[in-house]
């Protein structure tokens, strides 16, 4: 499976889904849409990639029926010794208020034409329980989810709570809906809280440097399949992302932040 597609979904799945419809009072997460400009993070360490131009959009909204996430990552990469390549990956999901159901759809496009799609639904047997994911595209497939698996909204909510408690290292099994290999063991390393330096519509007073490393659950490799670094505010907004593909890394700098009111579910 394409690492780029996994990163798009993760930026997800793990980073854009940031709460539930009835958001826990301990974590006051913000419904918002963030737009980022993508560029090559470190040309010295990239293998063959000389430049990148593109964008990333992360949108998460609370609703009375659950949390909704829409994401898109697209970029053009230039290579020093041949033709470049283009990526356009779009991801959408819905997670139930109790965080035990996830509907997902990830689509990859080539020159505007759909060439790959994963779509389905995952269910857990209650909080902390095991479950399964059922795919209807590209074909009927099922994968088992071990006890303790989290979906993206619950995973990010716990990440913010861990940061507020002062935890340094936390690890969970996460299913993000990014494909038949969408189950990963995710280890987060959280730095010290720092005062928010930028005036922002999210009204955050603190943020934490966070690094997420994604490992295969098969346990056949000690190295992560990919990593993402970012500054996470207490309102669940991400700044200064770095997407590490292994052969090259991208940085995502926020250009626009639009906020949405919380739903009135009375």
- For the record, the count of structural domains works out to 1
Strand content: over 45%
Please tell me how large the radius of gyration is: 18 Å
The string of secondary-structure elements, in order, is HEEEEEEEEHEEEEEEE
Largest β sheet strand count, sense and barrel closure: 15 strands, antiparallel
Content-based structural category: mainly beta
Average pLDDT number: 84
Poorly predicted runs are 1-10, 12-25
User: What is the overall shape?
Assistant: globular
Number of strands: 15
Q: What is the overall number of helices?
A: 2
What level of helicity do the residues show?
A: under 10%
Distance between the termini: 43 Å
Q: If you had to describe this structure to a student in words, what would you say it looks like?
A:
By secondary structure, this protein is mainly beta. It has one domain (3-259). 9% of the residues lie in helices and 53% in strands. The chain has two helices and 15 strands. The protein has helices spanning 3-13, 152-165, and strands at residues 32-40, 49-63, 66-79, 82-95, 101-110, 113-124, 131-137, 141-145, 169-175, 183-190, 194-195, 206-216, 226-233, 238-244, 249-259. The chain has a 15-stranded antiparallel beta sheet that branches. A hairpin with a 3-residue loop joins strand 7 and strand 8. The model is unreliable at 1-10 and 12-25 (pLDDT under 50).
